[in-house]
Known about the structure:
The protein is of the alpha+beta class.
Amino acid sequence: MIQLKNRKDRAKIRRIALASQGLLQTNPFGTGLAGSRKAIEHLGYIQIDTISVVERAHHHVLYNRVPNFNNQIINRLLLNRDIFEYWSHAAAFLPIDDFRFSLPYKHAIRDGQVHWYRDCDRKLMTELLARIRSDGPLRSRDIENPDTRRAGWWDWKPAKKALEQLYMEGELMVCDREGFQKTYDLTERVLPDSVNTDVPSTGEFAQHLINQHLRCHGVVSLKGLTYLRRNNALRKAVKSLTDEMLSEKVLEEVQLDTGESFFIKTGALEQKAPRVSHRMAFLSPFDNCVIQRERLHSLFRFDYQIECYVPEAKRKFGYFCLPLLYKDEFIGRMDCKAHRKTCHLEIKSLYLDHQDLDPDALISAFVSELEKFCRFQQCDSVSIGRIVPDHLAPPFRAALAQFG
């Protein structure tokens, strides 16, 4: 085991992690449609986000990695069958070539494992499947619902529940989307013939997860390899394979000065550290780089929690704070909201954690990213509320005056 005790080695580990995520390079995957496809293939998934305070996560994640990204690209990839929609650790868009690795969970749901709810209307499911088979793709809103009394998403109408259950079991796939209105069709009609549909063994699935995480994270933990996957057999297989890869010196284990351990590819520390730019990035709370909060804290000493699920009285930073990445460190968070009717970006609060940064360089990087971020949000004006620490408020406000 390699002990990481000096600042240089800790910085190299951070840079390996960020470069693996495509967050250090200007153009890591290419641009536009092709770049977005390559980014999703590299990352393994893009989480689908229902929150629209700013642009949703599945757009935001690609915006930070793919120049010339626009919000129509994901649906074009879906229609082209380059990606498919299913459950990863959450609802996600995944590379179509990884389809076979969705099958174990689909089969588990089909065999009785509960995903959303316990009671399934099998009769309605059979009727809907027959209707789609004979009449073609179907949206849940296409089905009449005599009972309009609904409490929220937890009280989905019966047809929606039945469609989602057929989708989770793998009988249906999402073939198109209009915002958050999904269109379902038979899997056999959506899935390209060239896609591998062999059900992976537990060992194959474990190897897939290890390969994927090493590719897109660079620095991985045993716990992180099976993040939110509650499959004991899979966890044991992952542990067995990492032990084997360590013994064969494919992997090596590094230990931080806190005692926490991670795996990296053998020789990674001997290579030149990825270059770091003076770029700042405003990340989504659901970005692949930050979604594993324990890993984020271990590697970057950044204690982050999304507070939209926290009662307002208990929030420390705000409803929907975006992590701020500057160079190779997370240096704060920004609580903001895009007011789309007025094309205005409201920065409710800006919290900066590091006190030893050059304020001029920091502000320059912030303003440069804010200009691009506003275009992404389709906003042409900005306002800012609280700024912490206080001494940075005057220069930040002066710099932001240009936005009106």
